[in-house]
Amino acid sequence: MIWIIFSFMAVAVFLTLALSGLGRKTSDLSRRESASAIFSDQIGEVEKDLERGIISAEEAKAARAEIERRLKAIDRQSDDKAIMGHSGRALILLAALVVPALGAGLYWQLGSPYIPSQPFAQREGEQAEAREIADLAVRLKSRLEADETGGPTEGWVLLAQTYMRMGRFGDAADAFEGLLDRPNANSALVSQYGEALVYADDGVVTPKADRAFERALELDPSNPAATFYKAIGLEQAGSPDKAYDLLKTRMDAEEEFRPWMESFVAQLNRIAPSIGRAPVNLAAFAPSMPGPTADQVAAAEEMSDEDRQAFIRSMVERLASRMQENPGDLDGWMRLGNAYSVLGETDGARNAYGRARDLADDLPQGDPRKVAIDRALLELGG
Amino acid sequence: MIPEIGQFALALALAVSLVQSVFPLIGAARNNVMWMRSASATSVLLTALVAIAFAALMWSFVVSDFTVLNVASNSHSLKPMLFKVAATWGSHEGSLLLWILILVIFGLGVSLLARNIPLKLKARTLAVQAWISAGFLSFMLFTSNPFDRVFPAPLDGQDLNPLLQDVGLAMHPPFLYLGYVGFSIVFSFAVAALIEGRVDPAWARWVRPWTLAAWVFLTLGIVLGSWWAYYELGWGGWWFWDPVENVSFMPWLAGTALFHSAIVTEKRGSFKSWTILLAVLTFSLSLLGTFIVRSGLLTSVHAFSVDPERGIYILALLAVAIGGSLTLFAIRAPEMEGGGLFAPISREAGLLINNLLLATATATVLFGTLYPLLLEAVTGEKISVGPPYYNASFVPIMLVLVVVMGIGPLLSWKRADLRGVLSRLKWVAGVSLLVALLVWYLDTGGPALAVVSIGLAVWLLGAVLTEWASRIKLGEAPLAESLRRARSLPRSHYGMVVAHAGLAVCMIGFIGSSAWKSEVVTFAEPGTQIEIAGFDVRFDGVEQLRGPNYLSRAATLTVFRDGAYVTTLQPERRAYLVAGTSTTESAIRTTLAGDLYASISEPAAESEQSKWTLRILYEPLVVWIWIGSGLLAFGGVLSLSDRRLRVGAPRKRTGQSSVAVAAE
Amino acid sequence: MKRLFALFPITIAGILGAFLLWGLNPDRDPNEIPSVLISQPVPEFDLPPVEGLDTHGLSSTDLVENDGSAPIVVNVFASWCVPCRAEHAVLTRMVRDEGIRLMGINYKDKPQDARKWLDDLGNPYERIGSDLDGRAGIEWGISGVPETFVIDGAGKVVFRFVGPVLGDEAISKMRTALDQARAAGGEAS
Amino acid sequence: MIRRIVITAVTLAMLVSQPAFAVEPDEILADPVLEERARAISKQVRCVVCQNQDIDSSNAGVARDLRLLVRERLVAGDTDQQVMDFLVARYGDYVLFNPPWKPSTYILWVAPIVILGLGGIATAAVLTQNARRYRKSRKQETERGASEERNPENHSLTEPHA
């Protein structure tokens, strides 16, 4: 549908341009015609002013004399050369072709044709869902509070996660906080608590949150979320090198590829330039994953800029077509989004991350991929 | 899909504007009719495309399509429909689109209406207009695209700053832009004339109505903004000499100078290069205003976004537009002289002095606005230039101008009899002196400037009436004759009379509301009585109201005068839920003598919900400002309706041999 | 002569354009007001401690009678100030790792809020003065919170930073100022 | 909706403390003369946090503090000038809406006069030159009779390069 409209617009533009310059030619004035018409009009005005008595007869005479002199002067001047006809028609036709092409090219850069319109009135489903979730949270909370034993841990975790989805991070933190002293408070729970604190504080890893991540690591030293946020805290405190080391060590300790590594790598590579460390390549940690191998990367480094762009682009296109066949692959969408942002194609990146975001809803709260997606979308202006 | 259509339309529009910037210009240089004529088709196309884009954006706002980033960040589903529509131009991006829409509509206006100006001039004018369009379209598309999308879309928007959710302010930008952008046509005409290297008589004819139209819109735009500030900000001020106000005021001043100077150019063929320069400068000042408001260069109460990158882009546009046109001016102007001669005492000389004063006033405002920046660049020192500076520099210049304004219209063209004119005005001078003395007597110790200004306002009003009376020979000829003369006086003349009288009326308002304002600020509890300017105001309490997207606390104030009931005022304090900010809605009782103005704020303390901060002002004569500005604009409209200006240039005389035009 | 006049407008426009370009330089913050305190002795003030907190109060004498040549950092903060939370970690680390001396001015803050805040985030301050009515803030010429000043060994203000000390640029500015203060203090002693 | 999760540069606006309303009743001095002076001073002092506004009409907390301070100093017997100096000593000339007369503002203050003067000279030059030519043309006119054809005012229309 949208392409039909676009083609229609393009054709209309082409036709209007192609036919421009033709048509009636009655009203074209030359300089001399226009000037003499104005002067005679001015003389008429002088007569009228005299009639109205606004100016005296003498003034009228002088004014008329002056205008007439100008009129004569104009007549003495050589007028424009004779104006030619249809030459240059080919160029106009060319322009008529170039304009839609240029417009389309520009649109290719700027537009996001696949994002549908979503008028508010048509989004009742989403609104109902949002209301339902809010309603659910209220009911769940009152039931948990009514429970004399303090309510099951799972219930509170569910409530907290619901709050997180609703963006009520402070409430989420409070819900988690009550569980901290329970014997079944595991590492994931504590790090989710810390994450809620971080979100509630606009992304600042406060000492309180830091302590939570500390404790999460005591409970399970391999908790990647806790490591991730600890590193962010270190960076915020002005120790990016320590943050870098922490992330790097954690990644090195892993035998094989893990999904959370994407966000680790993104974070590492963001810090790396400012402290003069080498950037990290995800492929190095996941030789088995689809993507450029070390050899390919090495080859890419030797290429010229253009070749490299083309190479990356071909890789991205392959990945993109694979994603069409396998749209449920969260990590794939994230990789695609990342690749697009490397290429500077924000809309492509946004779309890919958007798909990833939808899939990520099913993930447990502590998954750093969620954070990575959200951050990427934020950076992309989503 | 709709937003994408808008996006595509804009992309096409940019391409079309590029075509229009090139073909007509080369066509004019090489005498190619078809290329010159192509400008008509492209300007229709351009207008259609930008209008589609604008409609698409407006549609997105109306249906609250939050997949459009601009909608998501500037609207909300609960916002009243009027403000959803107005939010289309409430943000930086949307207002830019409106700017461009107006720009191309003016271009279309030239291509449709200007049948009577030489084809070459028209082609060049439209090409220059297209450069401006191309510049701003690319600026919008590459730095501030109104159709950026968000996916997944947020469930609801972030709402517009509630201060801006107001009828006065909703209408303020369109008028302001109609003014700013209207001057673009004049600019394009001037650049086209410079490219051609000569000024046609048609040129001066065309420049006047466009200038006048733009000036009327700008006047209304500025007044709407000022009026909004008066009733919405809650402390009754209407002009703050804020940089953003100044930048809209400068094109107004320059534009005023421009259409006065264009009169001379049209009637007498003089001041050609000066008129051209003013035409270039007026639009340049409009562009400067756009730049300052959108670059965050200066601190101001109501600037748009602060983004140096955008600033660089607009500055580059400015450099090309202003730098290019002024360079062209430097090359062409020295060759462009000659014109009717006149004596040192004449209408021409009067208008020259008018231009001198207006230009000085403009330069003073420009200098005051930019001086903090200049000083900071040179010494790193930061200073503020506020109202006291303008009161000391700008106001005296304008007062001198008012004196000249009284005399000027009575002078005749070429050579005038100043003594005769002055003797006709001696009664006016006497009366205004008396009024000034009376004011001084009544308000001893008050500001001296107010006394002088009141005297001058009376002088101007009297002089305007004297001029009119002498034109129709009131008292000299039989009444029937005078009436006949009054009827046949051209409308443009009435335009001048009304506009000049409007300024006098404005002056009275300016002075009244700034020199004799009184104010009471107090904690009020139900039953509290306040006395101000002869009124007794009783505070009856506060009730909670609920609006579509806000909660409101409305106070009820009953006003008495000498024990008799006068009116009830209901100032409100509104808390906008989504935007998370509050606004003050003042309540005003307006009479010719003055406004009784009330506003309330939050309760004095959380613990004392019954005790409210109440602010009551008495602003004498403030309504005269709005009446006077209305007269100014109406005077402009009257002039515009004059046949000579409306027609622009007459059609070619019938029967005249047509110049060799290639056959169909 | 006429040619010269015709060149006049473009010249003026060019000069103004150059200034406007300068004004856009990204390091320039149009809202920033230069401090008049730089190279001046610290202003007179005497603030009590935050009620219920066992950290000492802060007065100008604490800053002037600074025996060593070690510079002092004075940080104006408040619990209601969001950016303060963000910079807190940086300041804490500077105290711990770089051994700076940090004093605080708790600006217009309820004591209980301030106590809770310091409890949550930790208290890196050597002394904290409680500026309930904001009067000391005026003496320091602050325009918002947070602001951070560096005082040299002789009790003179060397540097003022407006906004949160966050990010490499801000931190390196602080370090430069501290070095400068150390050098000045070294000369003084 | 995605809440901004900010990991690095926390771009945060500085907060201005508790919002108040322009001049509050509890600030007003009992002595109307002093109050009048205080209001006049407040209107000349720029609020340091709220972009181009005077402290009299500003809602910012700092503006309120400054208003109170102004009144305190006035009650203590300061002259208007002393109050201004007190503020300038802390915030610099920036707080004055009325720029003081000093070397760095000489240019600002004389600019209008200079512009008017230069413009006046140019205008006078145009007028006298024009008047000379006008007189000459009238003289010629009377000498040669009203021969329109040869009147020098013809120049009015013959632009160069026409």
Question: What topology emerges from the helices and strands here?
Answer:
The complex is a heterotetramer of chains A (382), B (664), C (189) and D (162).
Chain A (H helix, E strand, L loop, with lengths): L1 H18 L11 H22 L4 H20 L12 H22 L13 H23 L6 H14 L2 H9 L9 H14 L6 H13 L4 H13 L3 H13 L8 H15 L6 H4 L8 H9 L2 H21 L4 H14 L2 H15 L7 H12 L3
Helix pairs in contact in A: 1-4, 2-3, 5-6, 6-7, 7-8, 8-9, 9-10, 10-11, 11-12, 12-18, 15-16, 16-17, 17-18
Chain B lengths: L1 H29 L2 H30 L6 H6 L6 H6 L5 H22 L5 H25 L23 H30 L4 H32 L10 H26 L3 H24 L12 H25 L14 H33 L7 H21 L10 H25 L5 H24 L7 H10 L2 H25 L2 E7 L4 E4 L2 E12 L3 E12 L2 E6 L2 E5 L4 E5 L1 E4 L3 E12 L2 E13 L1 H19 L2 H5 L17
Helix pairs in contact in B: 1-2, 1-6, 2-5, 2-6, 5-6, 5-7, 6-7, 6-11, 7-8, 7-10, 8-9, 8-18, 9-10, 9-12, 10-11, 12-13, 13-15, 14-15, 15-17, 17-18
Chain D lengths: L31 H13 L16 H15 L4 H12 L11 H42 L18
Summarize the main sheet of chain A: none
Q: Determine the N-to-C terminus distance of chain D.
A: 67 Å
Please, how many helices of chain D?
Answer: 4
Average per-residue pLDDT of chain D, rounded, comes to 74
Please mark out the parts of chain A with pLDDT under 50 across 5 or more consecutive residues, or reply none.
none
Query: Main beta sheet of chain D: strand number and arrangement?
Result: none
Q: Provide the succession of SSEs of chain D.
A: HHHH
User: Could you say which overall geometry of chain D the principal axes of the C-alpha atoms support?
Assistant: rod-shaped
Overall residue-averaged pLDDT value of chain A: 78
Helix content of chain A: over 70%
Q: How much of the sequence of chain D is in beta strands?
A: under 5%
Oligomer: heterotetramer
The value of Rg of chain D in angstroms is 31 Å
Please state roughly what percent of the residues of chain A sit in beta strands, choosing from under 5%, 5-15%, 15-25%, 25-35%, 35-45% or over 45%: under 5%
Q: What key attributes describe this structure?
A:
heterotetramer; B: 664 residues; six-stranded antiparallel β-sheet; four-stranded antiparallel β-sheet; 19 helices; 10 strands; 63% helix; globular; disordered C terminus; D: 162 residues; mainly alpha; rod-shaped
How would you characterize this protein structure?
The complex is a heterotetramer of chains A (382), B (664), C (189) and D (162). With 382 residues, chain A is an all-alpha fold. Helix content of chain A is 71%, strand content 0%. Chain A has helices at residues 2-19, 31-52, 57-76, 89-110, 124-146, 153-166, 169-177, 187-200, 207-219, 224-236, 240-252, 261-275, 282-285, 294-302, 305-325, 330-343, 346-360, 368-379. The longest helix of chain A is centred in the middle third of the chain and has 23 residues, at 124-146. Chain A is elongated and about 110 Å long. Chain B has 19 helices and ten strands. Residues 652-664 of chain B have low confidence and may be disordered. Chains in contact: A-B, A-C, A-D, B-C, B-D, C-D.
